[in-house]
Amino acid sequence: MSQSATITASSARPLAAPGTAALPAIGRTAMAAIFLLSGFSKLAAPAATIAYIQSAGLPFPPIAFAAAAATEILGGLALVLGFHARITATIMTLFTLATAFAFHDHLADQSQFINFWKNIAMAGGLLQVVAFGAGAYSLDARR
């Protein structure tokens, strides 16, 4: 067995293919884009967002609005930067699953069905960050 093929407990990081170091940063940025766009769109139309939250029957719509906008914007920025990426991705996974079940639960409606499964797929991508970290191009890698 060659030296490069030997994996020890201290080198338990997955072996990446050459030229792929930037892929985790690209993936994090792609996932963050939907959160950032959604968070800023909430800030642009707070009354409509609060009314939508209220129509879903969630408690305390103004507080839920503020929490959702903050989660999406701050979580999105943290994902892009790779800042505490595993914790951030865990929070964003829970947020994404909660929104899937709170806002996209009418699966007989094709649009709701697609959005529900989009959220599930996003949660799957976020779990990749939880499992494997932020990658080389991140603030986490600098620590």
Counting structural domains, the number is 1
The fraction of residues assigned to DSSP E strands is under 5%
> Span from first to last CA?
32 Å
- SSE series: HHHHH
Average pLDDT score: 91
Oligomer: single chain
The tally of strands reads: 0
Major β-sheet, in short? none
Overall 3D geometry?
globular
Instruction: Tell me the structural class.
Output: mainly alpha
Report Rg: 18 Å
Count of helical segments?
Answer: 5
Poorly predicted regions: 4-11
Helix content: 55-70%
Keyword list:
mainly alpha, 143 residues
Overview of this structure, please?
With 143 residues, the chain is an all-alpha fold. It has one domain (25-142). 66% of the residues lie in helices and 0% in strands. It is built from 5 helices and no strands. It has helices at 23-44, 46-55, 61-81, 85-103, 110-132. The longest helix has 23 residues, at 110-132. It is globular, with a radius of gyration of 18 Å.
Secondary structure layout:
Blueprint: H1 23-44, H2 46-55, H3 61-81, H4 85-103, H5 110-132
Helix pairs in contact: 1-3, 1-5, 2-3, 3-4, 4-5
